[in-house]
Amino acid sequence: MSVRVSVIVPVRNGEATLGDMLAALVAQKEAGETEVLVVDNGSTDRTADIARQFPVTLLHESTPGTSAARNAALRVARGEIIACLDADTLPTRRWLSELIRPFSNPAVMIVGGKVLTYNPTNATEMYYDACDMYGSRHNVYAKVFQFAVGMNAAVRTSAAREAGGWEESLMWGEDIDFSERILRRFPDSLAYAEKAVLFHRHRSTHEALVRQALGYGRGAAMIHQRYPDKSTWRALSPLIVAGCVAGRWGNVCTATARRMLGRMDRTRADITYCHALWSWHFWRGFFIEYYWLRTHKRT
Predict the structure, then answer these.
(1) In whole angstroms, what is the distance from residue 97 CA to residue 196 CA?
(2) 188: exposed, middle or buried (C-beta count within 10 Å: 0-12, 13-18, 19+)?
(3) What are phi and psi for residue 281, nearest 5 degrees?
(4) Is there a contact between 98 and 195 (Cβ–Cβ < 8 Å)?
(5) Which of these, 173, 178, 171, 177, lies nearest to 74 by C-alpha position?
């Protein structure tokens, strides 16, 4: 497909992974005419120096957040299509050519690619892999709030600008909101590119998992608040969630007992713990945003 593509890379303090990602990006096969826009979002490490070692355009955006960084690039992008990936990902050789392939259909406005786990080495990373948290297929084909995961997505530049870009007030869930606004303007225009594969370096500690779970929970609550016409949250939902979370902590107790009896290995037991930990803090973040903060914002 012969189109000009602008690849947007938002990054903050990404010196550990940015170089590998950019090396893989500039080595893309059959990518066509491409510009790479790296947006430094207030880094205090060597991120900018590393970016300058590659044939990219380095931008700076002081407003914090992935949305603000992407919008800075959107304002100057010259491509017909915008492709997005994160600095902690590693694209395969034909990632970009496969990601833009669905745009040969003029009805397609936004595309989601496939995200796999990069070399999981501990239980926390294995948990992300096991639960397929960023599995783009089930997000693209979700019954409610279909979306393209922001770390592996592409959109027609004209559609992105018509939708007003990414919502900068959202620190989490911005990719869901962005996709929803695109789809409200262009129904049935989201496609899945299964061969557009990149690898993501997941969170590797319990502390990082907890922070992300809290943020994702708050982001989910914001999406339900922004789009009440599509929200599936009902009066009985808190009871259902409580039962689900309690069940997962029950699984942790069972896994601990089985490990002590030698019937389960430590890694599998730790993955079970990570699942309960994620669920607890995700819903904690959701309830904080959906109920407590909403109540206080009104007073």
Answers:
(1) 8
(2) exposed
(3) -80, -30
(4) yes
(5) 178
pLDDT at 299: 45
* Backbone angles phi and psi of 263, in degrees to 5: -105, 0
291's CB contacts (< 8 A; 6+ apart) are none
Question: For 185-231, what is each residue's pLDDT tens digit?
Answer: 999 999 999 999 999 998 889 999 999 999 999 999 999 999 999 98
Residue 251: what are its φ and ψ, rounded to 5°?
-65, -35
What ranges do the domains of the chain cover? 5-200, 206-298
Instruction: Quote the distance between the C-alpha of residue 96 and its chain's center.
Output: 17
How far, in Å, CA of 223 to CA of 176, rounded?
Answer: 8
The interaxial angle of helices 266-287 and 237-260, nearest 10 deg, is: 160
Indicate the CATH number of 5-200 among 3.40.50.10260, 1.10.1240.10, 3.40.50.300, 3.90.550.10.
3.90.550.10
DSSP 155: E
Residue type, 34: T
- pLDDT of residue 132 exceeding 90, the answer is no
Residue 128 structure tokens = 């992300």
* Closest by Cα among 74, 35, 75 to 55: 35
